[in-house]
Amino acid sequence: MSELKKLRALLRDRPLFRRLWMSEVISLLGDWMSFVAISLLALQKGGGVVGLALVLVGHSLPHALLAPVAGVLADRLDRKRLMIAAYIAEAGLTIAMAIAASRGNVPAVQVLVFARASVAAFLPPVQSAALRRVVREDELLTANSLTSLTWSVMFALGMAAGGLIAALGPTIALAIDASTFVVAAFLLRVLPSMRAEGRALEGGLGTALGSVGRDMRAAVHFARERPALLEAVLAKTPLAIAGGGAWVLLNLAANEIAVLGSGAITLGILQCVRGTGTGVGPLFSASLVRRGMSMTQAFAFSALVCFGGIALLAGGYRLGLAAALVAALAWGSGVGSNWVLSCAEIQRLSPDRFLGRLAATDNLLNTAGMCGGALAGAVLVEKTGHSAAAALLGLALGVPLWAGLAWAHRRHAARISNAPPALAPESRG
Asked: What is the CATH number of the domain that holds 243?
């Protein structure tokens, strides 16, 4: 069966997955529309390149800061209720952002972006943990491929629409975004209770929050003893660091290329193509894995495609839109493949009681790397005046980290395989 037929069959045969998927579709479309508008607002009125990077940081950093809390709660509370509560809270904060944007209050918008992202930080580990409840284990790779394809299509449509709507101001995009969160929450109401297996909120919410450090350490210890699982948890980080710098360059390159004299339209086109890559890449990589490619080889292939695309963007965007489009497509293909492979492996290899925390650890490392790469790249651009410096710095940090992790993984796997059977009981987390 072809990959596309498997995607259609999954949507047809798994109604609960279809509901979960539809809620993401609707919220993502509004998210990316508003993200373009806010990015352009910050670049024009909020402090130049560093102000632009702060939008990404405000949008992403809470995912890193709150990932441990989100992971623990995902393993202790009803995942359905967490998702609905998060969507409703995001709707209210987005309405406040629209009001602030209509008044030209950029600092207030940035604060609200951070607040909304703090709420959104609870969604990735919860959604990842919920996914395994609505599909079979042998459907996880297909389900994650569909999730990535959906993200890509909504990213492309949202970015393209956001580029056009930005000419009318950010308020309209934010108002649309607020409505999407309400619809997403409504769609999830029919899902069954999704409390983690063998976990309960013992002693109340305060007890759960107080156990964050201990619970996260237990999950990390569990992954450290399983090289394939640890490889999946760490796989996104080097690409995220390189991608943070490349994201800064992409925004700056759009203003320099300026198709039809508009940086907003150009950014929408470039992000649309990058989003297309994040959808196409996973379908290709999933096909390679099913044909016998090892997961380690697939991770390496996706990383090389990503790094190659970023290098092409840094070296070739001045050649014009065509070169930038090819670079954005390759970058997106590598990132999308890496994302799907790592998520599917974490869901496949982790017991349900650890799944929320390991998904949160993955999210923490990914977002921290992306924010660090973007901020460091933006500061370097401010100091040197060269737009490509952001992406080049991201590569200079990300590529050696990827090579080092690959080397360490091989040594760790060999050491574990040669070790005598463990006498200690498996961690109960």
From this structure: 1.20.1250.20
Our count of domains for the chain comes to 1
Question: For residue range 137-149, what is the model confidence (pLDDT) as tens digits?
Answer: 888 888 888 887 7
Domain assignment of residue 423, yes or no = no
Q: What is the pLDDT of residues 159-174, one digit of tens each?
A: 667 666 666 667 777 8
* Residue 205 counted as domain residue: no
Report the pLDDT averaged over residues 18-35. Answer: 83
* Residue 153 lies in domain: 3-192+211-417
Residue with the bigger pLDDT between 103 and 365: it is 365
Is 200 domain-assigned?
no
Classify residue 83: in a domain, yes or no. yes
SS (H, E, C) the chain: CCHHHHHHHHHHHCHHHHHHHHHHHHHHHHHHHHHHHHHHHHHHHCCHHHHHHHHHHHHHHHHHHCHHHHHHHHCCCEHHHHHHHHHHHHHHHHHHHHHHHHCCCHHHHHHHHHHHHHHHCCHHHHHHHHHHHHCCHHHHHHHHHHHHHHHHHHHHHHHHHHHHHHHHCHHHHHHHHHHHHHHHHHHHHHCCCCECCCCCCCCHHHHHHHCHHHHHHHHHHHHHCCHHHHHHHHCCHHHHHHHHHHHHHHHHHHHHHCHHHCHHHHHHHHHHHHHHHHHHHHHHHHHHHHCCCCHHHHHHHHHHHHHHHHHHHHHHHHHCHHHHHHHHHHHHHHHHHHHHHHHHHHHHHCCHHHHHHHHHHHHHHHHHHHHHHHHHHHHHHHHHCCCCHHHHHHHHHHHHHHHHHHHHHHHHHHHHHHCCCCCCCCCCC
